[in-house]
User: Fold this.
Amino acid sequence: MDEFELIRRYFDRKRVVAGVEIGIGDDGAVLVPDPLKHQVQVIDTLVEGVHFPSDTDPADIAYRAVAVNLSDIAAMGAIPRWMTLALTLNNASEPWIAAFAAGLFEAADNHELALVGGDTTGGPTMTVTVTISGEVEKGAALLRSGAKPGDAIFVTGTVGDAAAGLALLQRHEVDEFLVQRFLRPTPRVETGRRLIGKASAAIDISDGLLGDLKKLLLASGVGGEIDISKLPISDALREKFDLAQQRRYALTGGDDYELCFTADPGAVKNIPGITQIGTVSGSAGLVCRLHDDIVDVDDSGYRHFR
Amino acid sequence: MDEFELIRRYFDRKRVVAGVEIGIGDDGAVLVPDPLKHQVQVIDTLVEGVHFPSDTDPADIAYRAVAVNLSDIAAMGAIPRWMTLALTLNNASEPWIAAFAAGLFEAADNHELALVGGDTTGGPTMTVTVTISGEVEKGAALLRSGAKPGDAIFVTGTVGDAAAGLALLQRHEVDEFLVQRFLRPTPRVETGRRLIGKASAAIDISDGLLGDLKKLLLASGVGGEIDISKLPISDALREKFDLAQQRRYALTGGDDYELCFTADPGAVKNIPGITQIGTVSGSAGLVCRLHDDIVDVDDSGYRHFR
Assistant:
């Protein structure tokens, strides 16, 4: 497998894309940023055997590598534009590469995201690093640091599905919905865009709702409380696991790639697919309630696949 | 080792940097591109045991990871501005990380390059992916594709040193200059800037002079010939290896990270540290001459460390 040839055949689509002067094939890509916007850059790596099982379908690996980066772009409220890919392969076959490229472009094409450059290397452990550059109105990027006491705390979609899906995948059990929620997370790019000027703070949920919400509260210098009974749980998760396990996955399971954000409830009432789960407070720390009781939740942490 | 803590302690320098609205610590970096320029993005990965021996000093690994990306920026004629880092570590100690960060910033600070984001992951194989965004005057980026028959072919610095240095390193022999040329290549950013508007095409030498020059000629739809007697060879390489080996390293040894470019000789006569080695022709392919004889050079390829 020759790197140069491989890139040419599967990754260089020779499309004319807005804002791309020079794409794949030179020493670097030449891009034309929108002079009226700020640029958002994100980078995320998936390692075989750590972030996904080794026998994962290559199309899913690639889709997921793009989606987790799009999720960071969504959490900033930005429009995704350009992507680069650093791919370390261990004797990948041509069909493997073809499937990987198909999954990559499937995820990218959902968002008019162009692959503009990359580097392919050989190595003992398959490693996929994707970067995405997006654009956002000047001064409008959603940060982790703007939550204020009295704001409501929201999440998008449903939480806990991905961790449940991964558990099923590892036990070779089938639940198409939950497994797909792990393999092909849905980055909330459109919701992120609608939160511009409305959300006071935002983060995407990669390490688990509790852990990521705590990061947001800490960055904002505030605290908060959430009501566990209000967590949005999917029907599939309800059917497959008991209530305690549902809540464990929802609170501490990672890889959901939903957004968690804070806002005045009135400002976001027309945004679909969001659920209020709590309130920002002035005192430090995060309190979990179940109706009127304070509950102690172990969030000792989610360690991805391993 | 906690990823969040690790990043905070060694990579987040909390400096105020021009053009960086939000640096490390949120879901993404927020940057302010120069509206009068185009952006150049490059990405390169170094894998332990493939691109460097496992026992390489972490400061050198990091320095080199930045330098090889800066070399791509140089080959485009751009000004380096922002860097992101995806680091996969296998049980790295805190001293290791401290040394890595020191080498990273040493390479970056030479060029006023700011680290604006990253992702740290655990995995069995240490892998370092760096991206750099640079800026270049609109329409002025140096491409591989502009060489014209009659242009002269130049290289910067001296060639062959890095491959010789790696060979010495692997044999545990000492030659400070040659080994440093491998471990800490000098990206020719300043020369790249001076070539704007003067060079007709440029590429950096990562895989070996012959291979990379062929890529440039192919991208330009031209051919060329070089005179092997004109290759710039360092005193250290001359002293340590016989003439045949010097030329082998110079022609097919990789990792030099010098620039190879084409230009009207008159246009670049005031640029220091460059050597004319040949001429662009209208016929396809690359011919190597030794004075008046055509020589057949095996460029079956350089495979980095492995």
